[in-house]
């Protein structure tokens, strides 16, 4: 059920009406809304999700009581990873075994339909189990409340990946939530902003990026850069649009979700990029993979190995293909290189330039490095990705045409929009207050109506799913 579909809007409106009119039934209303939302993808996947949630809930209760906590933690982690692995990685594993051992297996026979949101809800279930085991959070008081926490339909499919310490107390203290007009309006505002980003930006850039990547083997250097730039902005506007809409849905219900993006293409180095891109996943990888592997506490070599392992697994989490693993390892190498640069160069050398010039140069170079990485994420195979990257880095077959000039103009426009979004984000509250205070209600209503009509017209030919729905 897509966020920008009539079915979702009607489901959400019905849930909102019952949620605010009958405060004592909020938990049942949200629980049923979660079921209705997820059942749209298939009842069999809903039953699987319910089963994994119930198993994790009962294991967490037993762990909290001290009943063989380590054994039950391992059992819960294995069960959740097995659930994810069977659906997401079986065909990938069979394909690689067949390539190595020639067993006569057809990987297509092992290709299963991926349940929507399985990667995200698996990580939430794992984090919850580990946090209960570590004593960082108490287990949920009831299975229904746990279901509302783990399956909140506003963020279930593509995040943010919510932690129990941040979201479960909000679910368990529904009686403290009061209707606040400003919060409700802010929710509608964020939801609308996300819709506009999805329909007017991401979905309009997508066909251009798709057409170029469809002929990736024949692209020259400039066309390869253009394809990578277009996809960089497509995936950002698409994914951040979903996150904005998720935050908006949360505010509509009086709930606060964790922001997932902070204009990441204005980052000046790899660690900063991952503090601003898919923020909740980055924190998850840090807390449950990188730090347990030793982090930066055991020397540079151990830190480098932990970084590469964590980022490689992050890439594999995104998809069952070697291109995703290469994408993760590429970012791991960028992070390792930055650590070495900072330790052995920046501590002994200072640029003879103003700090602002150094900052913008760093942002520019980091964006180029990020764009190169997106080729691995988007290309249809490792060979094609390596061909494009080789073209881009060697500037092979470089030629400038009128259509390329138009593409570059569009890319500059999208980059300026990204800078404008940074300015907007840091003044969001005052802009919103100014909008509601200075613009008369009839004019605001007319503007909202115009936005709805525009979205309906633009999205009518096709409703494109969010990119991260595939992960």
Automatic annotation (TrEMBL):
Membrane topology, record value: Multi-pass membrane protein
Q: Which UniProt keywords apply?
A: Acyltransferase, Cell membrane, Membrane, Transferase, Transmembrane, Transmembrane helix
Question: Which subcellular locations apply to this protein?
Answer: Cell membrane
This protein's source sits in the domain of life called Bacteria
Note whether Iron-sulfur occurs among the keywords. no
Which residue ranges traverse the bilayer? 43-59, 71-89, 109-130, 142-164, 212-237, 357-377, 405-424, 445-469
PANTHER family from the xrefs?
ACYLTRANSFERASE, TEICHOIC ACID D-ALANYLTRANSFERASE
Tell me which family the UniProt entry assigns to this protein: Belongs to the membrane-bound acyltransferase family.
Return the protein name. Alginate O-acetyltransferase complex protein AlgI
- Which organism's genome codes for this protein? Symbiobacterium terraclitae
Lineage start: Bacteria, Bacillati, Bacillota, Clostridia, Eubacteriales
